[in-house]
Amino acid sequence: MTGFARRDVLMAGIMGAVASPLVARTDIPPSLDVLARRKGLRFGSAISWGTAGADRGSIANPPYARLVAAECGVIVAENEMKWQALRPSPTAFAFERFDAIVAWAESKRLATRGHNLLWHQPKWLPRWLNSYDFGATPKREGERLLTTHIDTVLARYGKRIESYDVVNEAVRPSDGQLYDTSLSTAIGGAEATLDLAFHTARAGAPRAELVYNDYMSWEPGNASHRAGVLKLLEGFKRRGTPVDALGVQSHLVTQGLDARASVTRLERDWRQFLDAVTQMGYALVLTELDVRDNGLPTEITPRDRAVADFTKGYLDVTLSYPAVRDVLSWGLCDRYSWIEGFEPRKDKALRRPTLYDREFRPKPMREAVAAAFAAAPPRNRAT
Ligand code: G3I
Questions:
Q1: pLDDT of residue 15
Q2: Degrees to nearest 5, angle at CA 251 with 273 and 48
Q3: Which residues have a Cβ under 8 Å from the Cβ of 190 and sit 6 or more positions away?
Q4: Dist. CA 380 → ligand 1 center (Å)
Q5: What gap in Å lies between CA 61 and CA 79, rounded to an integer?
Q6: Strand-pair partners of 119
Q7: Which of 151, 223, 322, 346 is least surrounded, with the fewest CB atoms within 10 Å of its CB?
Q8: Pair 302, 309: CB distance under 8 Å
Q9: What is the per-residue pLDDT for 382?
Q10: Residue ranges of domains in the chain
C-alpha cells in the first residue's frame, strides 16, 4: 500500500471511527493514544474554543474536534485558561470558554490538562495587572491576587483537572535569570512568587500533578535556557516547593535535511539535561510538541520526511526516560498552528509543523510519533 493510500485508509478509519463509533470496525488503525497507553504513556493535543463553524482548531469545528477526539486521551486548552483569557479585570473571572472546553473533553471521555495558573512574564499578564496599584501593603495585595486566582480556578474544576502547568516560562533564555513582573515585585521577588503559586496549587488540588512548564530545548542556542531551568528546579527542591514535573514544551526546530545527523549532534547535551532533571526526582511531561521546519526545502515530500525523522529521533531519546508520562502536541493540524503567525518561512511556503496537513490528512510526522510510541520502553504510570 502506497504512503498516500495508507494515509487515506488511516484518515478514513480515524474519521469513520468517530462518525460511527457503534460499528465495531477492524480496519481502523489504533489511535495515537491507544499506542501510547500500551507503554504507560498518554497522547493528547491542544484545542481551542471557537464559534460554531469558525475555521479554527476548536471544539466547535466538527472535523477538527472529531480528529482530536479520535487520536487523543488528554487535551489542553490552547489559551482559554490563561490569565489573559480568564481575567478581564481584577475582580472578574470569565470562565465560559474554558468551561466549554472542559465539558467537551468530558463528553468525549478525554482528560484535561490545565495551562496555566501563572505565565510569569509581563507580556503574558493582563494589561490591568501590569499597571496595577498594589497599595500600601503591596506584598499582601500581590499574594492575595495570586492566591485568589489559583484558589478560584482550582475550586471550580476540582478533580476534573489532574495536571496543571502551575507556572509557565519564568526563565529568560538569554541569561537563565528569572523574569520579574508587577506581581513578583509586589510580593518580594520571583522565587517567592513561584513558590507561593505552587504551594497554593498543592493546597487547592492535593492530588494534581504540579508542573513547571518551559520551552528550553535541544537545539543550539538553548544552553543558558536549560541551565536557568536546572537552577530553578534545584531551588524548588532546596526550598521544598511542591513541584512534581518539568513540562518540556518540545517546540522543535529542524537543523537541516539530514535529521539523523542532527539527532546525533544534539543527543548528548539533551541527555545531560534530562539526566539532571530526572535525577532530582522530577517527572517529565512533553506538553506542546510541534516542529518548525527550518533549513528545509520548499518541496513537501523531503520537508515532511525530515520533520518526521527529526521528531522520531527526538522522541526516541526523550521517551527513553521512564519519567515521561504524557505527550501532547500543540495542535494536530497545520492549518491552525500558531507557528504560521509567529515565524513564517522565508520562502513564503506554508509551515508544516504538526501531525496532520491543512486538509486533515495524516503526515509522515504522525507515523513518526506512532513509531516512537511502538519503540518506547514501557513505564508504570503510577510511579
Ligand atoms: O481572543 C483574542 C481575540 O478576541 C482578539 O480579537 C485577537 C486579536 O488581538 O486576539 C485573540 O487572542 C489571541 C489568542 O492567541 C487567541 O487566538 C492573542 O492575541 C494571542 O496572543 C494568542 O496567542 C497564543 C500565545 O500562546 C499567547 O497566549 C497562541 O494562540 C498560542 O498557541 C500560544 O501558545 C504558547 C503556550 O501557551 C505556551 N508555550 C508557547 C506556546 C506558543 O507560543
A1: 54
A2: 135
A3: 120, 170, 178, 179, 180, 181, 184
A4: 35
A5: 16
A6: 168
A7: 346
A8: no
A9: 65
A10: 29-375
Residues of the chain with pLDDT under 70: 1-26, 382-383
Distance CA 203, CA 86 (A): 21
User: Which residues lie closer than 8 Å to 35 by C-beta, 6 or more apart?
Assistant: 43, 370, 373, 374
Query: How far, in Å, from the CA of 79 to the mean position of ligand 1?
Result: 6
Cβ of 78 below 6 Å from ligand 1: yes
Residues with Cβ within 8 Å of 27's Cβ and at least 6 positions away in sequence, in order, are 9, 13
116 within 8 A of 168, measured Cβ to Cβ: yes
The predicted structure's pLDDT at residue 256: 95
CB of 214 closer than 6 A to ligand 1?
Answer: no
* CA Rg value for the chain: 21
Substitution candidate for ligand 1 out of 246, 338, 351 with most atoms within 8 A of CB: 338
Homologous superfamily (CATH) for 29-375: Glycosidases (3.20.20.80)
The C-alpha atoms of residue 255 and residue 294 are separated, in whole angstroms, by 7
> In the numeric block, which cell numbers belong to residue 280?
532530582
Alpha-carbon distance 336 to 26, whole Å?
31
Partnered with residue 211 across adjacent β-strands are 165, 245
What is the DSSP track for 155-220?
HHHGGGEEEEEEEE--B-TTT-PBP--HHHHHHT-HHHHHHHHHHHHHHH-TTSEEEEEE---SST
Coil/strand/helix, residue 126: coil
pLDDT of residue 380: 87
* DSSP helix/strand/coil, 95: coil
Q: Which amino acid is at 331?
A: G
Q: Cell 498552528 sits at which residue?
A: 337
C-alpha to C-alpha distance for 248 and 258, rounded to whole angstroms: 24
Is residue 310 within 6 Å of ligand 1 at its C-beta?
A: no
